[in-house]
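Need tokens for this chain, all 386 residues.
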Amino acid sequence: MQLAYSISLRAPRAYRLALSVFFFIQGLVFASWASRIPDIKESLRLSDAALGGLLLALPAGQMAGMGLSGYLVSRFGSRLIMLIAAFLYPGALLLLGAANNLVLLAGSLVLFGLCGNMINIAANTQAVGVEALYRRSILASFHGLWSLAGFTGGLLGALMVAQHQTPLVHYAIVFVLTMLLIATSAAYVLPRDAPKKSGSNSIFVKPDRNIMLLGLITFACMICEGTMFDWSGVYFDQVVHAPVEWSRLGFIGFMSAMAGGRFAADHFITRFGAKAMLQFSGLTILSGLLLSVVLPTIVPATIGFLLVGLGVASVVPLSYSIAGRSKTIAPGVALAMVSSIGFLGFLLGPPLIGFVAEGFGLRWSFALIAVLGLGTTLLAGSVKTK
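Here are the structure tokens for all 386 residues:
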């Protein structure tokens, strides 16, 4: 893709490095919240059921922000919206740490989800523009930084717990850190988005066939990703019968492979093409899940979860990259559409596992998810990548 406008202020590397900071901020802030959920649960004396209901406020905020984020990015540009959201997102984290009752925490979670979606859409719109300057795939590496930041946030959370720091103190430290990162990088982000020759900025525009296919591909991938996040530990406990000290091995393998795969994915996308990578990803997800189902012991199951991590690594970045180059819909709106459809998979996957497991067992649930993951391969053949 060649940009239809001139950017002569800085080299592409400067824009890439600056944008990398904002992807890192996203992952750090989200992991900081997630790492202190048990402490917040204990401080507010929430039951498991109350916590489960409360946590629905986060995806509610994310879903509410999908269309709004696309519109704002298309109307005001990704740079402005990303900078505003980069301030609001860790700011909402402070509200979560300060919330002293269920109502305040639920409201803060809705705001947290909305701001998180806003920075996600804006940053990925920026990434599409920076990728265009490089004229080769680089978007997956940005998502790799999100994963790396997730590890960093988890480690920082563990350190704060070990030091007996409250979530509010922890989140205040993260807020100051993110403000410093923004201050050093804001001047170097891409100044403007490419003007569209055609297409609509409206959030009510009907998605074309390619956008729908990309959304369904993302859905198929994220239903597997959501399963790994919520059920990998349970699977190792109930099906693999791993010792307690090894119960998180599958999840660690999955996360490590996904993060590493995202840093390596751009090379393979450039060499083999987007469509081939999407098809290969679906087959890798299928193979990994089936291996863990057929041979549910520690070593094969861990290898299987590693394969799932490699399989999901490039699908979302690739889908976003293709959507952002849509010729009929503004990039921000196109990304919001694909993200909305895909995120439904992330939400529906874990409950689906629970319902199927209740009737047929957890192994059959993972077998079903394996088949759904194959949808990435089956749908990719019909996607237009240019």
